[in-house]
Design goal:
The chain has six helices and twelve strands. The protein has a twelve-stranded mixed sheet with strand order 7-8-9-10-11-1-2-3-4-5-6-12. It is elongated.
Length: about 250
């Protein structure tokens, strides 16, 4: 049984990157178009005098300066629904969970060049599907409740380890001109936001930028397409809560 599901994890990472940068018109497949001519701006309220594209560009530039953040993502992929809740930083530290549809949940911690993975029962059963009951029972007896330790550059863990690098997200953000338009205000986890919207070929993108304090991008959504996604960003520049599991709780598959 492989320690991780590299193809699906890689798909999650790439899809997240593309969605996160879609409103900013990167090569991942934009949901907007390059704007031409003048753009309306608000004379009062948050960011007075700034147009939608100018606010979005400001948020992207600010967010790219973060050394760490927490990402929550819910999306639909060709492999089914995916949920992730991860704290990541620019040093490669990572802690959180990834849930693959009905297949179960994987907890992960990366610190230094080591990755720790812990699978719930659903995930273990899904990865032994097609095998004998004895094989499934052996996997459960060995791994349930335990952490699997892998080198970050090991084949099984490589894609997941790269997924824990904040730079792989932020480098895809491009502060380009867009057709994003102001669409009032809202809140994300209690924080007031300025809402920016645009649409293209049946897809609708919505960005929430913090209306107070540092102008971070707090939420990004794409609806109406084949792979809808909802991402929230928080806990900027906070230490990632990585803690190596106790040795008694670790299984070394080697």
């Amino acid at each position: 049984m492989p320690a991780v599901m590299p193809t699906r994890v890689k798909h999650l990472a790439l899809a997240s990157l593309c969605a996160a940068s879609a409103l900013a018109l990167t090569a991942c497949g934009p949901v907007g178009q390059t704007a031409g001519g003048s753009k309306p701006s608000a004379e009062s309220g948050p960011y007075p005098g700034l147009s939608g594209p100018e606010i979005l560009n400001k948020a992207i530039t600010t967010t790219k300066k973060a050394t760490s953040l927490r990402l929550k993502v819910t999306m639909t992929t060709a492999d089914g629904p995916v949920r992730g809740d991860l704290a990541v930083d620019t040093k490669g530290n990572c802690a959180g969970t990834v849930q693959m549809g009905t297949e179960g949940t994987t907890e992960l911690v990366r610190t230094g060049d080591t990755v720790y993975l812990r699978f719930d029962e659903k995930m273990l059963r899904s990865q032994t599907e097609g095998g004998s009951e004895a094989e499934t029972r052996a996997a459960l007896d060995t791994l349930l409740g335990k952490w699997v330790r892998e080198k970050a550059d090991a084949q099984d863990a490589k894609d997941l380890a790269q997924f824990c690098d904040l730079d792989s997200y932020l480098e895809e953000f491009e502060a380009n001109d867009t057709e994003a338009k102001r669409a009032g205000g809202s809140t994300v986890d209690g924080t007031p936001t300025v809402v920016l919207k645009e649409s293209y070929r049946g897809e609708k993108a919505t960005a929430h930028v913090a209306a107070e304090g540092t102008p971070y991008l707090l939420r990004f959504q794409v609806t109406g397409g084949t792979e809808p996604i909802d991402m929230t960003f928080s806990e900027f520049d906070r230490p990632v809560p990585v803690k190596e599991p106790a040795e008694k709780d670790v299984v070394d598959l080697d």
